[in-house]
Design brief:
Length: about 300
């Protein structure tokens, strides 16, 4: 893990996460796959990010911010600018309806949240209406990284101390979830919660837990039981709009155990699937553009199929 070369099973696990995202965002139900996949398809990206996170005491906070901004905020701005210009030309300029309302999507890009209030709110304000809703994840990950760096800095790089400090982040996330009337910009409330997943990933990496658990079938079975039971009790979730199911803490168990199982399966695929493993790894290395543009391509494909007469 300390080497620069990529670890194939990590990319395979990312591919599994993005494939579930693609299935869920079709708007179709795939039964248990949609339900149980919904438990880990966001946490797994935070956990994997924690596994590859490197805390360097000599690195300044400003340097870390610049590095993560290049990795996450520049793509966020680029993809959103493309989508804004495309729909501005298509829906406003070409139809002669350009006006102040045409700039509303820019507010969504700045706020970087799908909606202002929780989804059960009767009269909600939906910001990200130009097929850019999935891009919330980039700003959320950016804020999560910064919070995690601060936690690790305060802990001197020691995970046990970081776990204690993270309790404050988790309490803040619970406080904001139940008392804040709005979903905060850049998913600050969600980022405070996601730090726990980053910390879990760092723990897995430090303890080499994924590789060790792979050789312990009884522990794998226990992990699967924890995942199934916690998922069924907690109910469906949607981190992007602050929906953590029935119990916020229980979702930590569901998301962590489900992600761990996917990683164990990914290790198996790496060792036994040959070319298929490499294909999954390729997808896993390119999850960012897939995440940001898949709704746009879904729309294009739907338009083409409609023109060909497949849909009325």
């Amino acid at each position: 893990m300390e080497k620069k070369e990529r670890v194939l099973w990590l990319d395979i696990a990312k591919a599994a996460g993005i494939l579930v995202v693609l299935l869920v965002h079709t708007g179709k139900s795939f039964g248990p796959l949609s339900y149980f996949g919904g438990m880990f398809y966001m946490p797994i990206f935070f956990i994997l990010a924690g596994m590859t996170f490197r805390f360097r005491p000599e690195e300044t906070f400003g340097s870390f911010v610049k590095k993560k901004a290049r990795r996450l905020l520049l793509p966020y701005a680029a993809y959103n600018l493309f989508l804004f210009l495309f729909f501005f030309v298509k829906n406003d300029l070409l139809t002669g309806q350009a006006g102040r309302q045409s700039l509303f999507p820019l507010l969504g890009i700045l706020y970087s949240r799908n909606c202002l209030f929780p989804t059960e709110t009767a009269e909600n304000i939906y910001f990200m209406q130009i097929l850019n809703a999935p891009t919330w994840f980039l700003t959320c990950m950016f804020v999560s990284y910064l919070l995690f760096w601060l936690v690790m800095k305060a802990a001197g790089g020691q995970l046990r101390k970081a776990a204690l400090i993270n309790c404050g982040c988790l309490l803040a996330a619970v406080f904001l979830h139940y008392l804040s009337p709005v979903l905060l910009p850049w998913s600050l409330d969600c980022a405070l919660y996601a730090v726990s997943f980053l910390l879990f990933g760092k723990f897995l990496e430090q303890e080499k837990a994924v590789e060790r658990l792979y050789r312990k079938p009884l522990w794998l079975l226990l992990t699967a039981v924890i995942f199934a039971v916690s998922s069924l009790i907690n109910g469906s979730v949607n981190m992007s709009v602050g929906d953590y199911g029935r119990l916020m803490l229980l979702y930590l168990a569901a998301g962590s155990s489900g992600s761990l199982l996917v990683m164990e399966i990914s290790v198996f695929v790496e060792r036994h699937a040959g070319v298929a493993a490499k294909a999954c790894g390729f997808l896993g290395r390119h999850t960012l553009p897939v995440l940001c543009l898949h709704l746009f391509f879904y729309s294009l494909i739907g338009t083409v199929l409609q023109m060909l007469g497949f849909f009325s």
